[in-house]
Amino acid sequence: MRLPRIVMPFLAVCLITAQAYAGSFSFNRASAKKMVHDCAEEGITLPLEIALAIVEARSEKRFTRSEELISIPGMTEDLFILLDPIEEENDLVFNPNALPGMKSY
What we know:
Elements: H1 7-20, E1 25-26, H2 32-41, H3 48-58, H4 77-83, E2 86-87, E3 92-94
Antiparallel strand pairs: 1-3, 2-3
Helix pairs in contact: 2-3
């Protein structure tokens, strides 16, 4: 059975896209362990205590602006810069594959 010509390019795009978002997460939905794990995959050390503080803080208020993360206990300016949170559709995400300073629309 031969696959239509469109199937192979479609599968290739799916595989590439899956890898591109493998380390992405929402600061509003991810568990503390996922945040730590996905950051570690990108070479960023996010201490579990800070990830837990993020989870605790979001129970009171959803993160929508990147500046809101800087107020998390233990968050340093250097770590904040490494995390480079992206404001995306009323959410705040970590996406290591996004261009720094570019918002996703």
